[in-house]
Design a protein that fits this description.
The complex is a heterodimer. In chain A, about 40% of the residues lie in helices and about 5% in strands. By secondary structure, chain A is mainly alpha-helical. The longest helix of chain A has 30 residues. The radius of gyration of chain A is 22 Å and the shape is globular. Chain B is an all-alpha fold. The chains are: A mainly alpha, B mainly alpha.
């Protein structure tokens, strides 16, 4: 009698466990479905290649996607090797090549990649690619950028797959990461601020993706809440990236910041170094107005002290 | 017998020596930038001595990174210097070349100075991009 009751109980427990597992699994599956922007969401639009070039420069596409160790920053054949705490990323070819690059992509696929972090094949893209910031860009700006990218040279050759440690190599799991770290809310201008400040806020938080380097990250690689722009260990594992809130830029004027974006010189006549050199190669080609707008926004960042973090292990 | 360059003579404290060179570089940059921004009068003699100091840096720098000086002394030198010493030395030589090429122009006029300093700045960046760590 007791033995029969025990078996029924165990069976019930097994069934309940299986049901719970199924529900959790379904929930996880549902939460991690890669989002897509359908073509029907894109109205008619005439591409503006001048704006596309501006977006290309402020977006810093060359910094990661240009073929390394050669001077033509418009050759976006990829190949740069990026170390990280999760493994090694090999930056892909995004040239206009129809097969090896993105020349064969549709507009909707490009907008999807940039705002949802989903590949044309329907897989999650790793957030080493900063769609976490690019998702703040308008569809118009993205479509202009796409049109501009397609005017750049086609570079043949694909780049090898990333080499990431388990479980960071499970693309589906990035869906959970997105659920944890992205609030899905697009950039909204602040009506209490000037048009210039809003332009700067858009450029810095959208295509400029400045916070992606200038913020500390937690053990899953998400930006530490409340510490945006306060700097941290350099993503490439060497040295650190400065705090650009007023905690550290108090003595810089708007003019100083805009000037630095133009020629890489600090108010002390020092030079910005490391990865910022490549950034300035692009920002030096922007309009003076856009550099000033970004400087106005950066100057307005309230003072926040950074965290004390050790350099990221690789 | 003549000592070829000062790089042949071992430095007792190479980290302090190279930090001093870089600090002097910055002092010189401040002097010429003040002139460029109209905050100091244009003085050819001062510009000349700044460019002379930069030329000295280009010459002395490669010899100040001996094995064993990778860490300590609050150095901002990247480990990549020792992994790519030939490239580092080439970039130091390139800096020297740019400084020499722009020296005369820098003293000729304010516009010449601006163009010269811009060119030199890019040569600074060339090295700093890969070999200088910020803290």
């Amino acid at each position: 009698m007791i033995a029969i009751l025990g078996e029924a109980d165990m069976l019930r427990r097994l069934i309940v466990s299986a049901l719970v597992a199924a529900v959790v699994g379904l929930a996880a599956w549902y939460l991690t479905i890669p989002a897509v922007v359908p073509a029907s969401a894109l109205g008619s639009h005439t591409p503006d290649l001048v704006n596309g070039r501006t977006m290309f420069l402020i977006g810093g596409c060359s910094s990661c996607h240009a073929v390394p160790k050669q001077p033509d920053r418009a050759r976006l054949g990829g190949g740069l090797v990026l170390g990280s705490p999760f493994g090694t990323f090999y930056v892909p070819n995004i040239s206009s090549h129809p097969k090896d690059g993105i020349g064969g992509w549709t507009e909707a696929q490009f907008v999807t990649a940039m705002t949802k972090g989903t590949s044309p094949g329907g897989a999650h893209l790793f957030p080493a690619f900063p769609y976490t910031s690019y998702r703040n860009m308008t569809f118009d700006d993205l479509r202009d950028l796409f049109a501009y990218l397609k005017t750049l040279p086609a570079v043949a050759g694909t780049v090898r797959d990333h080499d990431l440690r388990f479980p960071f190599n499970v693309r589906r799991a990035v869906g959970l990461w997105k659920w944890l770290y992205l609030d899905g809310a697009p950039f909204k201008p602040d009506p209490s601020q000037t048009a210039q400040w809003n332009r700067g806020a858009y450029l810095v938080n959208g295509p400029g993706h400045c916070a992606e380097c200038h913020s500390p990250r937690d053990f899953l690689g998400g930006i530490v809440p409340g510490k945006r722009f306060t700097g941290g260990p350099s993503p490439d594992g060497q040295g650190s990236v400065p705090n650009i809130t007023q905690a550290k830029l108090k003595d810089w004027s708007v003019d100083d910041i805009a000037s630095m974006l133009g020629d890489g010189m600090t108010p002390d006549a020092d030079r910005v170094g490391g990865s910022m050199v490549e950034v300035v190669r692009s920002t030096s080609q922007l309009s003076v107005a856009d550099r000033i707008a970004m400087a106005v926004y950066i100057k307005s960042l309230p003072a926040i002290e950074g965290l004390r973090q050790k350099a990221m292990q690789q | 017998m003549a000592f070829a360059t000062s790089a042949v003579i071992a430095q007792p404290d190479p980290i302090a020596a190279r930090k001093a060179l870089m600090k002097d570089n910055d002092e010189g940059a401040r002097i010429v930038v003040a002139m460029m921004r109209g905050r100091a009068p244009f003085e050819g003699a001062k510009i000349e001595s700044v460019f002379a100091q930069w030329a000295e840096t280009a010459e002395k720098l490669p010899g100040l990174f001996p094995p064993g000086s990778e860490t300590g002394g609050r150095t901002h030198a990247s480990p990549k210097i020792w992994q790519n010493k030939a490239d580092f030395d080439a970039k130091a030589a390139d800096f020297g070349k740019v400084v020499a090429e722009n020296r005369d122009k820098s003293m000729a006029s304010l516009d010449g100075l601006k163009a010269a300093v811009s060119a030199v700045g890019k040569a600074c960046d060339n090295c700093h991009e890969d070999y200088r760590l910020s803290r």
